[in-house]
Structures are given as structure tokens and as C-alpha cells.
Amino acid sequence: MTLYLEMIKTKSGTIRFLHWSVFFSTVFLVITGFYIADPVLLFGQGEAYQAFVMAKVRFIHFISAIILDVSFLVRLYLAFFSTFHADWNEVIPTPKNFKEAIEESRYYWTFKGTLKEYRWVDPMDGIHFFGLHLVLVLQLFTGFAIYVSGIELTTGIMGLWATTLHIATDWTLWAFGGLPGVRLVHHVTMWLVVVGAFIHIYTQIWKTIKLKRSDMSSIIGGYKLKARGIDK
Hints:
mainly alpha, 68% helix, Fumarate Reductase Cytochrome B subunit, two-stranded antiparallel sheet
């Protein structure tokens, strides 16, 4: 039997763009979030408009959050209605996906046996994404609850914006015991996102370097190299 490599498309351009939008917006959110929580590293100098470092950081944090939320919602829509590949059934913890995810995770713990290759989403990655996105949703609600707490209720567009956010997020104050609890949950879930991101990056690098797969390049170029066999 002769083996040859075939280029197969695994991710559309839109999916790749959304992936990197989520990645970079999350990086900016973590960096700016650290500063907002403990603003001791940077101090503005000069006139007042030059010294409002916190205001600038909060603005970057807010814009990054909007980019993340929009990217998440578009990705959720494509998971069901993509014309290239709707992958919603690969990221929910069905019994089949959960069983295969356990088998896959056992490989990373023991490095024994073989790791099955998938064209689309690995079961472990799928469940990982599912849990990570649930955490991001919680971050969305707690983050906007913190944000709207600093906005005075007024009339007009800002009043409508503040009222909408209060209606959508005030339940977090009840659920987590007030604004301090919401801040704590927002901070803790940030660490869950960071840990989850590192686990995802580690597994992708491992598959690319150790197993000679093209998982890293597929999220950039959209294609994987897959071995095919031909009987002579």
C-alpha cells in the first residue's frame, strides 16, 4: 500500500476569522481586566485628558467585550446554519461525544495508545468549547452587570441602554449576593477562561509537533493534511 497526503478543507474563512476574533479580544480583556482590578502598573501624566489611564483601559475592555460577544453570537449561529459545515452536534456533551472525549483525554494523561484523528472537531475539544463558552456567557452577564452599576439612569439612548442592561443582568446581583459577589465571579471565571485557553493551546501544539498533524495550520489556512492509502 502506498500512502499519500491529501489537502482537505476543515474550516471556512469566516470560522477562522471568528476564532481569532475571540482569541485576541479575550487576550485584550484579560490584560485590561488585570489593570482594572489592580491599577498600579500605569499612571497617566500631564493634563487631565492625558492622565485618565483607567478610562482608556475601561474603554478598550468594553470594546473587546463587544467584539467577543458579537463573535460568539455569530459563531453560535453558524454552528447551526453554516453552509459549509454546521458543527453544533460536535460540541454538545452527548453520550457518544462524552465517551470519546474521555478516551481522548486519557491519552493526554498517559500518552499511551493512539489518538484518533477527526476532520472537524475533536470530541474533547468540542466539550471543552462547550464548557468554555458557558463560562464566557457568565462573564458576559457579570461583566455588563458591573459596567451598568456605574451608569446613572437617564433618559434618551443612554437611559434605554442602561435600563436594558439592568433588566438583562440584575439577576446576577441576586444570584451572587450583590455587586462584590458579581465581581468575584467575574474574576474567577476569567481564570477559568485563561486555564481553558492554555489547555486548548497545549493540545493543539502537541498534536501538531508530536503527532505531525496540521491542527495549528488549519486554523490559519483552513486545510489539513490527511494520509490516504492506495492499494497497488
